[in-house]
Model the fold of this input.
Amino acid sequence: MSHILVIDDDEFFREVLVHMLHRDGHQVTEAHDGVKALALLQHLRPDVIMTDILMPNMDGVEFIAELSRQSNNTPVIAMSGGRRAITTAFNLESAKLMGVKATLAKPIAHSALRAALHEVLP
Done:
């Protein structure tokens, strides 16, 4: 199957997501924020990147912008659960404007995950 880089600061959510991806036969690499993910991308070439939007150190929007500056064309799926004044819809719409290929609102159903991956993978 595919190699997927999952970026999310919520360890429990990341574990659940990785479990779902492994069940579908994907290889997964994990990062807890955009800084770690950029370091991994120095030697890693995933087929898809899944990133949370709200994270410490380097959030998903900053990460997506940096990918664009580096001319990295790896398809990105943005994920968000929103927080207080910042809604999930706002976060995901912002990501779409930055060129992500698909979005997922948390919590993520396994069927929605499969559909998003089907949308971005050739």
Notes: The beta strands are 3-7, 27-31, 48-52, 76-80, 102-105. The chain has one domain: 3-120. The chain has a mean pLDDT of 92. The first strand starts at residue 3 and ends at 7.
